[in-house]
Amino acid sequence: MKIIFLGAPGAGKGTQAEMIRGKLGIPIISTGDIFRQNIKNRTPLGEKVKAIIDSGELVPDSLVTELVSDRISREDCAGGYILDGFPRTIPQAEEFDRILAEKGDAIDLVIDVEVPDEAIVSRMGGRRTCPVCGESFHVVYKAPRKENICDRCGGPLTIRDDDKEEVVKNRLVVYHKNTQPLISYYEEKGKLRRVDGTRDIGEVHEEIVGLL
Ligand code: AMP
Which residues of 9-42 are buried (b: 16+ CB within 10 A; e: fewer)? Predict the structure, then answer.
């Protein structure tokens, strides 16, 4: 099964993707995580995208689409995958559909996790990320067992540069302008399902399981 998670930054896409990964046994492809890993390892790709990501703007379409196209051709994606954070613009979605169509393939389901902007801004203030393994937490909604320590690897939790309030506001502007149009794009193709992301993480998860 090939699934796309849509939604504003901080809507809970990553958390929900993680929760269904085990059930479906397919990998998650998070373009944001791939970029952050590259920034951390100071690769040429990381150097290229760091300033863009720190400002909350989008990495150029061709670069992201090529990256995802390469990633889905790996063996672990043969049984499907979950996309978190891609596509984020209409050109990315169109190009991705074209790449899949060339292989006689298509996306099965697009889940839009809907959360109003005000809730996003307050949520993201509480978000904490592990710079070592990439796992994310929230001081209220998904607190680590030990304060500021990653449950998964014991790393020190930090606030991502692009989770700072001014950057979050810019990311929302960028989201409404570039990514929100994808909702109609997939709705017209009959692929879109909406879920109310303001509810408890477990309730949102149950609804998503029902859609699969
Ligand atoms: P995320 O963790 O998905 O919120 O992504 C963090 C940042 O990575 C975004 O704010 C963008 O700068 C960049 N990014 C991730 N995915 C994409 C994409 N599909 N297109 C363009 N930029 C992206």
Answer: bbbbbbbbbbbbeeebebbbbbbbbbbbebbeee
